[in-house]
Amino acid sequence: MNPRFILPLLILLTPLSLLLALSIGSVPVKLAALINGSDALGRSLILELRLPRALSAFAVGGLLALAGTLMQVLLRNPLADPYILGISGGAAVGALLSMLLGLGVGWTTGNAFAGALLSMLLVFSLAHSRGNWSAMRLLLTGVVVAAGWGAMISFILAISPERGLHGMLFWLMGDLSHAPPPLWGLIITGTGLLFCLPFARDLNVLARGELTAAALGVSVQRLRLMLYVVASLLTATAVTIAGSIGFVGLVIPHLLRLLGLSDHRRLLPAAVLAGGCLLVLADTVARSALAPQQLPVGVITALLGVPVFLYLLHRRGGNL
Predict the structure, then answer these.
(1) Roughly how many angstroms between the first and final C-alpha of the chain, as a whole number?
(2) How many CA atoms lie within 13 A of 118 on its CB side?
(3) If you count Cβ atoms within 10 Å of the first and of the last residue's Cβ in the chain, which end, N or C, has fewer?
């Protein structure tokens, strides 16, 4: 496929995926109900339940794919994903402690975001403790901090009463059933993309190596700091909305690069659209496959992501 056609194709697929999400569910609804108003129940179901959830899914998918693209450039590691530096672990500890204490949804959301920010500051302060930091030092610090958060998560699950474990596990696997209104998620997704696009050329150069970037006049340290802060904030927002949803931020950048998108001027918006479409479709499957029972959307993305990633690994001959 010609890489120039990928972005227009994704622009076309985005409304189609949203329409599919609106029309499929445990209760059959015709989209004509939105136009002629003959089905008040169907109209209410679409506008009050399915549309906000689909838009939240699109925002979260876009946030994760954009954050994953930035993380892979920052760490120069093809296995980097939005959660590799422990952001999701800090958010999970904040959310699970709120659930353990019986706090409301608002407290759970706020504490999840606070935990993500705490993790971001902790990793940066430890990696930058001697005034200088490298991608390897940042990666190792993030992995260790993530392991510490993982131990705390296991402890919280071990001491939690059985009646609360179901909600905790759903949050950890990624769940959009209690997502807040999608407006802020969409605004942050769009703002993050617009903020990153002017740096697309610098990202292209940095992807070839720090020495090359410095030789071409790129302020490597400032760019890396910007990448870390922006990717962390995008990840924190996504985790706050829907919990830990895996593989979107890992697979989408690889898939687009395999299709020939290496220029970040096209890769960044394509990642947002592809990640959003993927999560909208995955959430549609999650809430309708075993209806009326709903599955965590993170389960669906993992089931899709594992074979796709193995296929990409095979196509590249083991060299991602």
Answers:
(1) 19
(2) 16
(3) N
Contact between 119 and 84 under an 8 Å Cβ cutoff? The reply is no
Task: Name the packing angle between helices 135-159 and 105-127 (round to 10°).
Answer: 140
Q: Are 70 and 126 in contact (CB under 8 A)?
A: no
What's the predicted TM-score (pTM) here?
0.91
User: Amino acid identity, residue 194?
Assistant: L
Q: Report the C-alpha gap between 17 and 243 in whole angstroms.
A: 22
Distance CA 252, CA 258 (A): 10
Rounded distance between C-alpha atoms, residue 301 and residue 305, angstroms? 6
Q: Which domains does the chain have, with CATH numbers?
A: 3-315 (1.10.3470.10)
Mean pLDDT of 247-266: 88
Structure tokens at 17: 């995926």
DSSP 180: P
Q: How many CA atoms lie within 13 A of 143 on its CB side?
A: 9
In the chain, % helix, strand, coil (3-state, to 5) comes to 75, 0, 25
Report d(CA 79, CA 247) in Å as an integer. 10
Q: What is the pLDDT of residues 266-314, one digit of tens each?
A: 999 999 999 999 999 999 998 888 777 888 888 898 888 788 777 766 7
